[in-house]
Design brief:
Elements (H helix, E strand, L loop, with lengths): L1 E5 L6 E6 L5 E4 L3 E4 L4 E5 L8 H9 L6 E5 L5 E5 L7 E13 L4 E5 L3 E6 L12 E14 L4 E13 L3 E5 L3 E6 L4 H6 L4 E14 L3 H8 L8
Antiparallel strand pairs: 1-2, 2-7, 3-6, 3-9, 4-7, 5-6, 8-11, 8-13, 9-11, 10-11, 12-15, 13-15, 14-15
């Protein structure tokens, strides 16, 4: 499986080239185009293996209920994928390690990759970013997307990241939700609110824009539907 990210970082698209016998699993609605003899199967979990509960968990974490599985013809084929918001896309290679991905940032993966929800408890309840993230692990490739550019921050000790700018992070990292300033009043008046304090050694992938802040800025300027 070869994945080529094109037109990044502002309007990225992923070209996925599949060899015969390979299967790509992707979020419902992510496809732009595909080869004429590409076979697409839709399930709630893995191909030939549905899972209503897993699908419901993905919906809670911000992903779609259905997943599409693409399998090429005897000569192989291509699938082009896009995302809902303009921004970057990144391919991550997993070799058994775990990856935590924020809801809405998962795009596609190799068929052997496991995608499940991750309960973060009440420590993320007050972050404004949702109670559930996706827990992704296995061996293969994963495509994630961001709103704006995506870039890594290497953590070795402690690092603080605004919750709205997190795309994904290594499962090896511990984190807790905390106020950005010395008090809740100064945190919110300063426009930062709450942040994630990471501890350990690993990588956090961040996005340059915050979709929640963007929505709050643009929303009031949109004309209401009649």
């Amino acid at each position: 499986m070869q994945i080529d990210i094109q037109m990044g970082p502002g309007s990225s698209a992923a070209k996925v080239s599949l060899e015969p016998g390979e299967i790509l699993t992707a979020e419902g609605g992510a496809m732009i185009a595909m080869s004429g003899d590409m076979s697409m199967t839709t399930t709630t979990h893995k191909k030939k293996s549905g899972g209503i509960m897993k699908a419901l968990k993905r919906v809670i974490s911000g992903e779609s209920f259905f997943m599409n599985h693409y399998e090429p013809g005897p000569n192989g084929g291509d699938v082009f994928l896009s995302t809902a918001l303009p921004g970057d896309m990144k391919v991550m290679d997993l070799n058994g390690q775990g990856l935590i991905v924020q809801g809405g940032s998962y795009v596609a993966s190799s068929h052997d990759i496991n995608v499940d929800f991750s309960w973060q408890g009440f420590k993320s309840a007050f972050s404004g970013e949702g109670l559930f993230w996706l827990n992704i692990n296995g061996i293969g490739k994963v495509v994630v997307n961001s709103f704006g550019a995506i870039y890594p921050i290497e953590v070795n000790g402690e690092y603080i990241v605004d919750t709205g700018h997190i795309v994904a992070f290594d499962e090896t990292l511990n984190f807790k939700i905390s106020k950005a300033g010395k008090s809740l009043v100064s945190s919110f008046l300063g426009g930062e609110g709450l942040v994630c304090k990471f501890n350990g050694k690993g990588t956090v992938w961040c996005q340059s824009h915050n979709d929640t802040s963007f929505g709050k800025t643009v929303g009031p300027k949109l004309k209401p539907r009649k």
